[in-house]
Amino acid sequence: MRISIVNEQDEIIGHEDRNDRNLDAIYHVSSLWITNGKGEILLARRALDKSHDPGKWGLAVAGTIEEGETYESNILKEAKEELGLKNIHPRLGTKTRSNGKWNYFTQEFLLTLPDGFNDFKIAGQEVAEVKWFEVGELKKMIKENPDMFLNGVKRRMENYDFKS
């Protein structure tokens, strides 16, 4: 898979094979935070055979932008592939920059589903399971067992407000 490589302004400057890319190269990712009318947050537990962070709880949907994709086209594709969600209209959220082990921009999207919605078609190669979490319960779990969660979830929950 070829992914888009971007500059410091998040402008595409080229494409590289994901597995052979320069590790200093900046790429970009889309993410989808899903809530319901009760204010619960949907998280997905990564498949156990994933190369990075297997079995950890993370965003309901996320994906690395491939050649020819935009943030929006990627998140719509990933939502369909990972959870079977079609005809959704997520709201644009914040864009952040990560400078750690990986160097990337993340464009967040927000989606609210109706209470009781559980009609997910989980992609087993990507997702082991999905679960709705009450905000207080999730914050407590992150505090007590931080290694169960991806860093993006932990950072986002520090300043929880999906109205932004």
From TrEMBL:
GO biological process: isopentenyl diphosphate biosynthetic process
A Pfam short name: NUDIX
Matches recorded under PROSITE patterns: NUDIX
Gene3D superfamilies: Nucleoside Triphosphate Pyrophosphohydrolase
GO MF annotation, one: isopentenyl-diphosphate delta-isomerase activity
A cellular component term, taken from the record's GO annotations: cytoplasm
Ranges of residues in domain Nudix hydrolase: 25-155
UniProt cross-references to InterPro entries, sorted A to Z: NUDIX_hydrolase-like_dom_sf (IPR015797), NUDIX_hydrolase_dom (IPR000086)
Protein name (record): Nudix hydrolase domain-containing protein
Organism, scientific name: Candidatus Nomurabacteria bacterium RIFOXYA2_FULL_42_12
